[in-house]
Structure formats: C-alpha cells, structure tokens
Design a protein that fits this description.
The chain is α/β, with parallel strands linked by helices and 303 residues long. The protein is 40% helix and 13% strand. The protein is built from 13 helices and eleven strands. α1 links the parallel β1 and β2.
C-alpha cells in the first residue's frame, strides 16, 4: 500500500502544479487527480501539454473518481457511459489502474430490490468499459444523514447492504471509507472479512467523539485518529497482512478546520496517517525537508 494525497477528500482545490507540490512536500507517494478535467484539457490542447506536470515528477496517480450519476434516467446514464471510453484511454496513458464511484444512498426512482438490480447492472457496465483498459473499479457508499433526506426510497447507506451489492458484482472491488464504515453501522470484524485483493482504495477519517453516528452528516468528519470507533491501526495492519497494494488517503471536512490554510490541513493529514502507519509497525518515509536536514554540513573552504 502507499500513502496517497486526495485533494477532494480534504476539500482542497488548486492548480495541478500546486497540488503536486503539496503532495511531494509531505511525502505522499501517490495523488488522485480529476481525470475528467485532464480529458478536457487534453482535448483543448494535447495530452502531452495536459500531463506535463505529472510527468515531471515521480509521483504516481492513485485513483480517479468517476463523475457519473448512478441515479440518472436510462438515457442520461447511457450517454455518460459513452464518455468512459476516451476517459479510460487517457487514464491508461497515465498508467492509472484504479477508478472510484459511490452508489446512491437513496432514490426516488424504485424500491430497494428493483433499484438493487438496476445498480448492479449499471456498475457492471462501467466496470466492463474500464476493465478493457485494465482499470479496476472501486465501489463506495455514503453514510452521511444528508444523503437520504428528501428521498422516497432508502438505498445503500449501511455496511450490510453495501457489502451485499459489491459482492454481487464479480468484476468490481471495494472503496473502503472508514468514516462511512462507522456511520454506516460497520464493525472491525466485517472489515476483516474482506481480502486485500478485493479492496481498490482506502480512505481514512474519524467521527468526533461527541457526535452520534446515527445523526452524523458529512461535515462531522475529522482527520483519522489512531483508534476510535473503528481502530485505524488494526485497519492498516489488516491491509498490510492482506497484501493490499492500493492507496490509503486521509480525509476530513473543511468545516472542522475553519480558518486554517490548506498547507496546515495537508500537514496535519500527513502527520495523522504517518502516526497510524508507525503504530501499525510500518516504515514511514521521511519528509523531503527531513532528508535535507540529515545531510551533514560541510563548510565550503575559503579561497
């Protein structure tokens, strides 16, 4: 596994060059990018121009998130699937092998059982297109209370139904988000049952102690803590023991860090994930600035 910087998961925006600099400064080995934006910029200019900053570094691209609406009507969904062909071609050129999507927490379209079959078919279609470019699809869910409000039919906002859907689609894997896992009534034993090769990506986030999981919204997300309702040290140990090879990314809501700079948030995110990995017995790469400090000082002789 490798430490991954996902700007979206931290509520951070910026030019691609700025985000790459943040990732490198805080020793992230991977970074998620907006592949839809990359496709648009490649079409406006060229692939070489759009990817020049990425190619100038040795940072790998961890994953990209698909901007497809799984709750759209049939015509709109079919049109969006067609856009996956050029998108996956760009991703393949960048040697990206993991894409992510989240299922609806609720819908106005169909009751659970019927909508389950619709989602299984749609996600399988997406996975087939990506699979033709050797890209594996990771499926996640949203547990925040706001995602079910105002909808007629509840769908997937709990771990039990989430696992049922993912396990019903043979050509996909899991996007594990530990915040959603806790809020979605998941436990460590359920997570431990998932083998490492079935997991596509992992995002780590914690719920504040004073927040009831049953009432939590997405704003109630803080940077990952060592233990808590889901023990992050045990999570990372399970991933390591299961030979998980994908990205692990810290997450947080900017609502919990009002008034702070993005550099502050990235630094604290790096410190949080490094502390978890160290506690799990893993070697953590030093920051570039620490490597510079370790170089012995040899004064230049006066001529």
């Amino acid at each position: 596994m490798f430490k991954n910087f996902c700007p979206q998961a931290l509520g951070i925006n910026g030019r691609q060059s700025e985000l790459i600099e943040l990732a490198l400064t805080y020793a992230f080995r991977g970074m998620d990018i907006d592949m839809h934006d990359m496709l648009r910029r490649s079409q406006r200019s060229s692939f070489e121009e759009a990817s020049k900053y990425l190619k100038a570094t040795d940072i790998r691209i961890g994953t990209f998130t698909l901007a497809l609406d799984l709750d759209a009507d049939d015509d709109a969904f079919s049109a969006s699937v067609a856009t996956l062909h050029p998108l996956s071609e760009i991703a393949q050129q960048l040697q990206v092998d993991r894409a992510l999507i989240r299922v609806p927490a609720a819908t106005d379209r169909l009751p659970f059982n019927e909508f389950f079959e619709v989602q299984r078919d749609r996600i399988s279609q997406i996975a087939d297109v990506l699979g033709s470019r050797d890209i594996k699809l990771g499926v996640g869910f949203r547990a925040g209370k706001e995602h079910t409000e105002g909808k007629q039919f509840p769908f997937i906002s709990k771990v039990e139904t989430f696992r049922a859907l993912v396990d019903a689609i043979p050509n996909v894997g899991y996007l594990i988000d530990t915040w959603d896992w806790v809020v979605g009534e998941g436990a460590m034993d359920q997570f431990s049952e998932i083998p490492g090769d079935k997991i596509v990506a992992v995002r780590l986030g914690s719920l504040p102690e004073d927040v009831d999981p049953s009432n939590a919204t997405s704003n109630d997300r803080v940077l990952p803590e060592l233990h808590g309702l889901l023990d992050h040290v045990k999570v990372v140990k399970h991933l390591h023991d299961g030979n998980f090879e994908g990205p692990i990314s810290p997450t947080a809501s900017t609502m919990q860090y009002k008034g702070q700079t993005r550099e502050f948030l990235v630094q604290k995110a790096q410190e949080a994930i490094d502390a978890i990995c160290k506690e799990a017995g893993m070697t953590v790469a030093p920051l570039p600035m620490d490597l510079i400090e370790d170089i012995p000082y040899e004064p230049t002789p006066m001529i």
